[in-house]
Amino acid sequence: MRFNMPAEEFEGRRAKVAPVAAILGECHGHPVWRAGVDPVDELVSCVLSQSTNDSNRDRAFDALKARWPDWRGVVEAPTDEVIATIRVAGLANQKGPRIQALLRDIHEQQGAFNIDFLADLPLDEATAWLTSLRGVGPKTAAIVLCFAFGRPSLPVDTHVHRVGKRLGLIPERMSAERAHPLMAALVPAEQHYSFHIQLILHGRELCHARRPDCANCPLSAICDWYSDQQAEASST
Question: The pTM is what?
Answer without folding.
Answer: 0.88
